[in-house]
Design a protein that fits this description.
Elements (H helix, E strand, L loop, with lengths): L11 E6 L8 H14 L3 E4 L17 H16 L3 E6 L10 H16 L4 E5 L9 H6 L3 H15 L6 E4 L16 H9 L5 E4 L11 H11 L4 E4 L29 E4 L9 H11 L23 H17 L11 E2 L13 E2 L21 H10 L8 H15 L2 H4 L5 H26 L4 H28 L7 H4 L11 H9 L19 E4 L5 H15 L12 H7 L9 E6 L2 E9 L2 H7 L6 H6 L2 E7 L7 H16 L4 E7 L3 H10 L3 E3 L8 E7 L1
Parallel strand pairs: 1-2, 1-8, 2-3, 3-4, 4-5, 5-6, 6-7, 7-8, 14-15
Antiparallel strand pairs: 9-10, 11-12, 12-13, 13-14, 15-17, 16-17
């Protein structure tokens, strides 16, 4: 695939094996190359964190047996037209200024080059940023040290066509104070040789959405389009997550603005069928799709790529793989499951050793039906993406929440009793579908896929069984099992191990769940303020003023400098304006003036000189009441304070009305803001300030 923007160069698209945990086997990697070739992908980046000689013992050369395996793997990649990119990660302990270290690095890569590898990568992710004393004497910054050794190695290897560099600050959230003002990224962009491509994960380590604007911003700093190292399907940070949703929330408009995309998927090999298949579909989206308003919540607005259609294509192909046997000797015989009580843990499956046929007066055999496409769609929706559940999972959570909160309607006849029973039946049917999916998955011929999935589907079935039994108990369908009240319940009835005990002891456990009570969005997008946001900011200001004091109208409230900033009468300082959005639109903002004195003079507002000397800057933060999570406001004010501090300001203050108890409480809990005295304040206003 050529670069769709210039028509020249290869658009890098494929898979990075870059997770923490057990690396894939050589056989699995060979199977990956076959899939990549079949689906039109062209790159494999070898970077397993737990390969000792990739990271921890990077100086050590490969032994003869290891070399033989790598030679075979590189050869297999070539056979399937896949570019094998060998990555090495020396950043844990390298001394950049020591010539022996550079020689060791070159020697290691020369060895891999002799294996037939022609593409390479240097990774400096997830390491300490502090240089040793020797490096501090030799280099002006950490970035300059990394760039010097990378440029040297790149030239030593003969300037390979594919040479990737992973910076230590590899996403927007790691950049201080911002992407555009990051000294580290600017040094990398200015000094890294132009033939070297740079890896980037997006706004975050695991990015919910990647916008065209964010890529344009980082491209300008790096002096080149990045290669996205996409962690949207990575699960190495949480052993209870499996991510089987489609590649999404990356508009196809990104394609001509990128050098490439590599997905770093689940640790388990076989469940990555969906992640890689849907990425391949996305990469093949036409580059001339035309202008469109890309809102990934409404995928039909992107004519080049539909995540749901891509998902169904992937699941259809995956079903065929499920039904193909991976056992020697041909297909497995039918598997019969013993019937089991609904409140008991499932028994082990028994393989029928003979074609037993029961007589009419005997129990009929219970045989699981073949796996269906609907089963795989349900599986995907139960294990969807890091920032959202699939449709069925959301519905089940909503129904269980409603049934629990209206439990009184289950036994006492009220106006909602009929609705409760109807919704309880709906929930029970959904739970039964999960159980049947589990049974059919357990009997799929391809056992290798099942073994990768088994812990996850057992876990979700156990949770569904408990929820199902709870709803039946609410509805009076039998008394609660004695097991529930025992001092020693069966272990499958609670989250186990030490991790579960820690979680139950923590006061805030569950506050980052995707499903909240009350129901609310779990995802917020914070972005820079632009002139088009003026009307929405004014609307939020009016709503907050109206809600702050029901006894007075907004026009009767005392004027504040922050009001003039919010209405647009005063313009915020550069890099000092942010807005936050949820699924319903803009829900808050944060604006700042690094030097408030000229602004106060402009609106004829007197501010004490003694205050301005110690606190020359002003900040205003407002979020709508529907935002009950304090994290967005905290994130915005931290970003603003960082920018204000970078401007040279020594302190900042904010103006608050006594009626705005919510924001007074917010600033108080930050810890750094304290109430101060200021002459000439309206009676209904207080000022809080923080030193920087």
């Amino acid at each position: 695939m050529s670069n769709p923007k210039t028509g020249a160069g290869r658009f890098i698209c494929g898979v990075v094996e870059g997770f923490y945990g057990r690396p894939w086997t050589m056989e699995q990697r060979t199977e990956l190359f076959k899939r990549e070739q079949k689906w039109g992908l062209n790159t494999y980046l070898y970077a397993p964190k737990d390969d000792y000689k990739h990271r921890m013992y990077w100086r050590d050369l490969y032994a003869a047996e290891e070399a033989e395996q790598l030679i075979a793997l590189i050869s297999a990649a070539k056979q399937h037209n896949v570019d094998f990119v060998y990555a090495i990660s020396p950043g844990l302990d390298i001394t950049f200024s020591n010539p022996k270290e550079l020689a060791a690095l070159k020697r290691k890569l020369d060895q891999v080059k002799e294996f037939g590898c022609s593409s390479f990568s240097l990774l400096f992710d997830d390491i300490e940023r502090e240089m040793c004393a020797a490096d501090k004497q030799a280099f002006s910054s950490f970035a300059h040290a990394q760039v010097a050794i990378t440029n040297d190695v790149y030239q030593h290897l003969g300037k390979p066509e594919t040479f990737l560099f992973c910076p230590t600050d590899y996403c927007s959230s790691q950049c201080t104070p911002t992407v555009s003002l990051s000294p580290y990224l600017n040094a990398v962009g200015e000094n890294l040789l132009p033939g070297i491509d740079i890896l980037w994960t997006g706004p975050k380590v695991v990015s919910h959405k990647i916008s065209v604007e964010s890529i344009e911003e980082v491209s300008a700093v790096l002096k080149r389009p990045p290669v996205i190292w996409d962690n949207i399907h990575a699960n190495d940070y949480d052993p209870q997550r499996l991510l089987l949703g489609p590649y999404k929330d990356r508009p196809t408009e990104l394609i001509p603005k990128l050098r490439g995309v590599l997905t770093n998927p689940n640790c388990e090999f076989h469940p990555n069928f969906v992640a890689i298949h849907t990425l391949a579909t996305w990469c093949k989206a036409p580059a001339d799709g035309g202008q469109r308003d890309v809102e990934m919540g409404d995928e039909e607005q992107d004519p080049c790529y539909s995540p749901q259609k891509a998902l169904m294509l992937a699941l259809t192909d995956w079903l065929q793989e499920f039904m193909s046997t991976d056992q020697p000797g041909g297909p497995r015989p039918p598997v019969h499951l013993k019937k089991e009580p609904s409140d008991e843990e499932p028994m082990q499956t028994d393989v029928a050793e003979s074609s037993y046929v029961p007589s009419p007066d005997e129990n009929p055999l219970y045989t699981a039906e073949p796996l269906t496409l609907d089963d795989l769609r349900l599986l995907s929706e139960l294990f969807y993406l890091p920032y959202e559940h699939g449709a069925t999972a959301r519905t089940m959570l909503q129904e269980l929440d409603w049934l629990k909160n209206h439990g009184q309607a289950a036994t006492a006849e009220t106006e909602q009793s009929a609705e409760w029973r109807s919704r309880a039946q709906k929930f029970d049917s959904m739970c039964e579908a999960v159980v049947q999916m589990f049974n059919r998955l357990s009997n799929a011929p391809n056992r290798s896929i099942l073994y990768d999935l088994y812990n996850y589907i057992c876990d979700i079935k156990s949770g569904v069984d408990m929820a199902r039994f709870y709803v039946k108990t609410l509805g009076g369908q039998g008394q609660p099992s004695a097991q529930v009240m025992q001092d020693e319940p069966e272990p499958w009835r609670f989250r186990g191990a030490l991790s579960g005990e820690f979680q139950r002891m923590l006061p805030g456990h569950g506050n980052r769940d995707l499903f909240r009570q009350p129901l609310m969005t779990a995802v917020y997008c914070i972005r820079p303020y632009c002139p088009e946001d003026k009307a929405e900011v004014q609307k939020i200001l009016r709503e907050m003023q109206k809600g702050g004091d029901a006894t007075s109208s907004p026009g009767a409230q005392p004027p504040l400098i922050s009001d003039s900033l919010s209405t647009g009468e005063l313009s915020p300082s550069p890099e000092c304006a942010l807005v936050v959005e949820d699924d319903f639109g803009m829900c808050g903002y944060a604006l700042a003036l690094t030097d408030v004195k000229p602004a106060a003079a402009k609106i004829q507002r007197a501010v004490s000189e003694s205050v301005l000397k110690e606190f020359p800057s002003l900040v205003v933060v407002q979020v709508l009441p529907r935002v009950t999570d304090p994290s967005p406001a905290k994130h915005m004010i931290r970003r603003l304070l960082s920018s204000i501090r970078s401007s040279g300001s020594k302190g900042v203050f904010c103006e608050l009305r006594h009626s705005d108890r919510r924001m007074i409480n917010f600033y108080s809990k930050l810890g750094s803001f304290k109430q101060i005295e200021m002459d000439g304040l309206p009676q209904d206003v207080l000022v809080m300030a923080a030193s920087l």
